[in-house]
Amino acid sequence: MIGVNGMRTMAELEARLLTRDAALTPVALADELLDLCEQILCHWLSHKQVVPTEAKVEGFRLLALHRQGCKGEPSFNACRESCRELAYYYNLLHLEPEHPQITSRMAMARAVAMHLCLFVGGKFEVPELGDDCCSSQALRAGAA
Questions:
Q1: Which terminus, N or C, of the chain has the lesser number of Cβ atoms within 10 Å?
Q2: What are the backbone angles phi and psi of residue 57, rounded to the nearest 5°?
Q3: Total number of domains in the chain
Q4: Which residues span the domain enclosing 13?
Q5: Tens digit of pLDDT for each residue in 91-107?
Q6: What is the C-alpha separation between 39 and 135, in angstroms, rounded?
Q7: In whole angstroms, what is the distance from residue 81 CA to residue 40 CA?
Q8: Among 113, 67, 69, residue whose Cα is nearest residue 89
């Protein structure tokens, strides 16, 4: 289901990230993960009442969205490396779809995307998340 502005809800994005679609090629998975993570950051920006940019940083809108999301919210920098790592795996999956370690690379890309989803979802619930570290363990354990 596609919601407002063509975006899925955060719950739908998380559910899609948990879905293992064996039919997806490495390139298709990379494209989907990048799109899902862009939508996640668009939710964050919309929550902050900021219009998400269409610009790109280092060739990725995801990195531009992250940069935009950090303005006035230094703790959001905690997911900077996740965004950069997803861009790294996107490039690996696109450039070497036949690599012997492609299954591992696909799993890592999915894990990084899920980490970003959980962090942003956690920030909606606990705005201070990321002030000391990006761990959402306390949040997930119900200790928030």
A1: N
A2: -120, 125
A3: 1
A4: 9-140
A5: 999 999 999 999 999 99
A6: 22
A7: 15
A8: 113
